[in-house]
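Changelog-adjacent note: as of this version, every example in the card shows the full chain rather than a window. The one below runs 233 residues end to end.
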Amino acid sequence: MTIDLLSKAGFYFYQSILQLDAVIDNQENHRIFNVLDLQENAIKILSTIYEDGNNFWNLWETRKREFRKAISLEKNLWNNPSEENYNKVADMKSAFGKVAIDSLFIFSENSNNSEIYNLLLESHKYFSIGFQLYDDIIDFTEDFNKKQFNWAVYELSKTLDFSKYKYDVNILNKLFYIDGTSVILFEKSIYYLEKAKKVIEKLPPDSLWLDTICDFEKQFFKPRIQLMVMSKQ
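Full-length structure tokens:
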């Protein structure tokens, strides 16, 4: 019963994050009321599971601070576009994804699970970086038009003078695939997914988190990179 409630709360909060992304990235401010309603529903459920003063709420505040810091750091990535900063933003932007790990760890009330808890958090970090790289590849055109930081755009800007192509995003996006930059970034995405899997090798082989990583990798990455490599031959 409690797991069902946690799943329901997680669904509400995940939906609120999707809505919040639309507010932040697309200035769809009308969605803010949906965000508040969804988060309120999630917190109401969580409050029936974790009493006031429970360590879960300390972790909740930590995740809130991480997410807020990520939004701030992301705005400054063009000024300091290091891989370290990019990875930090990717990890902290997914802070609320860690709430599921936090909640189950607290709910288990078993100190022996500390190692598993830390392994899952580390794996989640690598998965988030791999996912963010993939997202930047797919959102090349959209992010370029919105002038949002995008690692794929940044990497291409290091090898091409955009002004020579009059900043035509359609041409730049084609060149991104033609010159091999896309293959490099897809490979880097897969590298982080593999790290996410490697970290949790000690966990039982029927891990649902491992299944999630593998399904994502199979569905999106490997077919795409195979086609791209073939196109270069």
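Structural remarks: The two ends are 55 Å apart (CA to CA).
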